[in-house]
Amino acid sequence: MAGRVxxxxxxxxxxxxxxxxxHAVRLAQEGADxxxxxxxxxxxxxxAPPATPEDLAETADLVKGLDRRxxxxxVDVRDYDSLKAALDSGVEELGRLDIVVANAGIGTVGVRLDxxxxxxxxxxxxxxxxxxxxxxxxxxxxxxSGGAGSIVMTSxxxxxxxxxxxxxxxxxxxxxxxxxxxxxxELGPKNIRVNSVHPTHVNTPLLINxxxxxxxxxxxxxxxxxxxxxxxxxxxTLPIPWVTAEDISNAVLFLASDESRYITGVALPVDxxxxxx
Length: 277
Ligand SMILES: NC(=O)c1ccc[n+]([C@@H]2O[C@H](COP(=O)([O-])OP(=O)(O)OC[C@H]3O[C@@H](n4cnc5c(N)ncnc54)[C@H](O)[C@@H]3O)[C@@H](O)[C@H]2O)c1
Fold this sequence. Notes:
Blueprint: E1 9-13, H1 18-29, E2 33-38, H2 53-64, E3 70-74, H3 80-94, E4 99-102, H4 118-146, E5 149-154, H5 167-187, E6 192-199, H6 210-216, H7 225-233, H8 245-256, E7 267-270
Parallel strand pairs: 1-2, 1-4, 2-3, 4-5, 5-6, 6-7
Helix pairs in contact: 1-2, 1-8, 3-4, 4-5
Nicotinamide-adenine-dinucleotide binds near residues 17, 38, 77 and 206.
């Protein structure tokens, strides 16, 4: 049986690990070839340990293990020229582009907005909002020349509701919704669909790291994931602390595939009922 995205080519940002790797693998399982990019370097204020070139190579091995082709590049989504060069050369090698998953992002520890440093604010906007715009901007000419396409942007529950002390993240992720809707109206007549996914907590290094444990559980000396879980569970209607990257990949796959062929401009939560609270 043909895969759900058979013979399509997908561009995935932030693909070295976490959700990006999972999206690349899930799309490859359903028949897509992959252009996988990641910064593979530390980001100034990010508490998560950095992804590495070895992580990106592992993503590539996983895709190859599924008998799909893969092209990788170490690129910062803030650097439009490098991003465009990497994507252009990936498309040249794989022959086309059908799917964009603008997933790369960071979560940095915030404070109240009126007390936030300009650097912390600007870094967040540059990566989580402008980086998404640049990723899609680089991809649009290729989608236009193919005559169709599906773009999926990764926002967050924080793109649909606000939390205190993380206003830079909330603003960037709400901005992704505006970007998604704007691209959707501009590109719809060209048969290009644009949607966003809104994960709740996902058990990737962005969440599951030492500094986040300490942030959520300042009452404990050596908090770990088991101490974080009950706090995360309070965000949800369903009785779980977090979802897996694969849960988000299944939504991305649906939006990328022709099963959603008339769905555009939609902000899809994968949130265990977080938005109900
Ligand atoms: N994990 C969560 O709880 C959660 C919840 C909601 C939304 N999100 C969003 O999901 C997306 C993926 O995050 P994840 O959970 O997989 O985290 P992750 O830290 O495991 O993976 C993020 C990847 O993006 C890459 N990246 C970061 N900045 C980059 C840049 N400037 N250029 C290129 N690559 C860059 C990182 O190197 C890393 O490999 C992010 O946009 C994040 O904001 C995460």
